[in-house]
Amino acid sequence: MNTAMNAPLLTVRGLTRRVGARHLFDIPELVFPRATAVALTGVNGAGKSTLLRMIAGLEPAPGATVAWTNGDGKPQEAPLTPLPAPLRQRVAYMHQHPYLFRTSVRDNIAYGLRARGVPHEEIARRVGAALGWAGIVHVQDTAPEMLSGGEIQRVALARAKVLEPDLLLLDEPTSNLDGHAREQVIALIGELAAEGRSVVMVCHDRELINLPGVVRWKLGEGRLDTRHR
Ligand SMILES: Nc1ncnc2c1ncn2[C@@H]1O[C@H](COP(=O)(O)OP(=O)(O)O)[C@@H](O)[C@H]1O
Ligand SMILES: [Mg+2]
């Protein structure tokens, strides 16, 4: 293996968030390992969603930096805000309540690839594969407002996976689901991890936390414990 593959996926430094006068969290260094699934836990209001959104480049992270390795093995470091262009291609974020455009399921999944200028035939091929992967071929032409909660969550996962990200940030992917819908989403997340992607999920679902190989991070009292058992 070359050095680029041995280096962590990302290292974020100086990740600090204040809410008014209060320090929500202060994380001097956070290493995102390759091909690892992480369950991020912590009480309500601890800052889990905020942390995910800062890493995804959706909230400003003043003073924070991010280090990564380019495809050619060259180490890079830059401010986390705005998220450096090469990382925007490699990081996908899924909101706790995914928002779908009011077009079709197929269109929602194709959106990110179109935004990247991917050729039409390749979009069709990759979207078809993502629909099959998520088990949502039968709703591909359905208007999103007609979908069940479980289907929405699977569309959102397919929309993230189709971008082939190295890092998926999932905010409470199963918290609104039960029964078979929840089991389907757990199985898909297990597959994403098994494919060698890194997954960081805010999660209280014991079954997800207990999937083989899942590492636990706990956010509380302003600190992130990355060796939580
Ligand atoms: N834009 C904001 N303005 C003010 N307070 C916020 C904002 N976003 C989050 N907070 C506060 O930051 C804290 C952490 O929120 P959040 O990241 O949603 O926590 P968690 O996901 O762990 O429940 C909460 O106290 C919340 O009220
Ligand atoms: Mg939250």
What report would you give on this structure?
This protein has eight helices and ten strands. The chain has 229 residues and is of the alpha/beta class. A hairpin with a 5-residue loop joins strand 4 and strand 5. Helix 5 crosses helix 6 and helix 6 packs parallel to helix 7. The longest helix has 16 residues. The chain binds adenosine-5'-diphosphate and magnesium ion.
Largest sheet: 6 strands, mixed
CATH architectural type:
3-Layer(aba) Sandwich
Identify the overall geometry: globular
Remind me, CATH topology?
A: Rossmann fold
- The SSE order reads HEEEHEEHEHHHEHEHEE
**Unreliable runs, pLDDT <50, ≥5 residues?**
none
**CATH hierarchy, class:** Alpha Beta
Number of helices: 8
What is the assigned CATH homologous superfamily? P-loop containing nucleotide triphosphate hydrolases
Q: In which range does the helix fraction lie?
A: 25-40%
Strand order of the largest sheet: 6-7-8-3-9-10
Q: Could you give the count of β-strands?
A: 10
Please indicate the percent range of residues in DSSP E strands (runs of 2 or more): 25-35%
The radius of gyration computed from the alpha-carbon positions, rounded to a whole number of angstroms, is 18 Å
Task: Give the distinct bound molecules.
Answer: adenosine-5'-diphosphate, magnesium ion
Number of domains: 1
CA distance, first residue to last residue: 30 Å
Q: Write down the overall mean pLDDT.
A: 94
